[in-house]
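User: I'm writing a tutorial on reading structure tokens. Could you give me a worked example: one chain, its sequence, then its tokens, then a sentence or two explaining what the tokens reveal?
Assistant: Sure. Here is the example chain.
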Amino acid sequence: MSNTQNSVTGLKAFLAEAVTPFHAVKAIQHRLDAAGFTVLDTDTVPEVGGRYYRIANGSSIVALRVGPNDVASAGIALAGAHTDSPTLMVKPKPEKTRQGYAQLGVEVYGGVLLNPWFDRDLSLAGRVSYRADGVVKSTLVNFEQPVAIIPSLAIHLDREVNQKRSINPQTDILPILGQNIDDWSIRAQLKTRIEAECGAVDEVLDYELCFYDVQHASVIGLDRSLFAAARLDNLLSCYVGIEALLAADGETTALMVCNDHEEVGSLSAVGANGPLLTRVLEQLEPDPARYRAMIEASFMISCDNAHGIHPNFSDRHDDNHGPLLNAGPVIKINSNQRYATNSLTAGYFRTLAQRCGVPVQSFVVRTDMGCGSTIGPITAGETGIKTLDVGVPTFAMHSIRELAGCADIDYLQTVLTHYFSRYQASDVQG
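And here are its predicted structure tokens:
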């Protein structure tokens, strides 16, 4: 099997598990455990050759391999991504009955592209807190089977829908769970499911549940070159980064961080604007002077998907900056610091890719359009580490189903594996 086929097959399996940020971290943890990584407790002293991870809130994770070189002079090869994706979250008191149909009220999380959510087979998953024997506990749930749908309004009742369509997120996107169900309250449903796996439950207390499309990832095209799936933004980068870290040879101190809450600004205890990463770095080098030297010698690659040039809407791109799918990872540049890339960090990534025989593209948003952002500028601002923003080009970003190029998955993994194995602070001077 080719490297590209391996990457695609692995990503398919990962996405099938990683239906929420909590499930994504659990899937990453299983892979790290199998590779001999251990939990980095707050009193653990990281040792040369050690492989560690730390989980925060069940939805963010840092994985670390300690190489033989002194980190104060050699620095660390870091990469980062985010575990969350735009979705529909279930409200605390969501139950509604209209015309005999059972429905759940939802809250929009992040910048969701709402139109594609209609007429999809939806399931529910997330984290639930409950009380059992007087103790508050939590567990992950996944209904797995399709339990809801948001049907479109027939064109006969909305003749202008193909000319103009606005969606009211309060009234238009409530999923339907069925008809005339005796006890369909979300807490009753959760209680039944938790008791089947965990034993008696006194009370379901709260939850963080979201809907997701049950359709699995697919390889598409006459040439089998395209990869369609949910949550590619940004679980593709999480998967590729972790796999690259696992494949690295251990000669470089390397770290992969996967933060939650990027889609809503990253300001949380476990987001990129929180203390998770810096606390791990301080644990790796507690001496203040040596810590500062380590930061100066380190490098960060922020991995988040880029906008590929859409053949039906090519005018939405700058003429000279239209990344193609399957043409290599994209260096993302914005002079207003929506991306952290500068000429030095971009030059280093181009050098890395050249060493691996991987093509590279660049993206700059049209000057008359707004620009999204990533964990890159936030992590750079929090840590002071030289940072680059790069990502696999995709279509339909923030849709319930996105599209990437199969070759690009392997391209990015190849570069990151080399980076995690061969980074030297002397390669990036300036």
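What the tokens reveal: The radius of gyration is 22 Å. The mean pLDDT is 95.
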